[in-house]
Amino acid sequence: MTDHYRYEPSVWVRSIVEDDLLVRLATELTRPCPHLTDPEHQRYAYALWAPDLLLCADCIGPVMDAPAGMCDRCGEAQAAHQNDYIPTTDGEGWVLLFRLCEDCQRREMSQ
After folding, report:
1. What CA–CA distances, in Å, run from 50 to 13, 98, 99?
2. 55-82 burial code (b ≥16 CB/10 A, e <16)
């Protein structure tokens, strides 16, 4: 179900990265898993369908395996695509995971 695309992220994706996630971390609404204090766990993931968690690669499995729910963008349709967006050019750091319905997937990829 994961779709890997290289594209310019939409305003919606950038606002999550630049605004929502930073606010959630600053206000402790999103909790990092305990492994993220370990220097060996340098890559982490933030899944929009589990916004209270920031997880390392070792802990993301159960979140990734969760059944697809509603679209993370419109919230109205069943999610059909799981996407990842890596905001760094070297592939290090973190990844934003989001699930989109068919209509939102088309909108996201066309922007």
Report:
1. 16, 10, 11
2. bbeebbeeeeeeebeebbbeeeeebbbb
- Please give the full DSSP string across 65-107, using - where no structure is assigned: HSPP-B-TTTSSSB--EEEEE--STTS-SEEEEEEE-HHHHHH
Cβ burial 3-30 (10 Å sphere, 16+ → b, else e): eeeeeebbeebeebeeeebeebeeeeeb
With cut-offs at 50, 70 and 90, classify the pLDDT of residue 13. confident
Tokens of 20: 């929502």
Cβ distance 82 to 63 under 8 Å?
Answer: no
Q: 94-100 and 81-85 as β-strands: parallel, antiparallel, unpaired?
A: antiparallel
Q: Is the pTM of this model over 0.70?
A: yes
> Which 8-state DSSP code applies to residue 57?
T
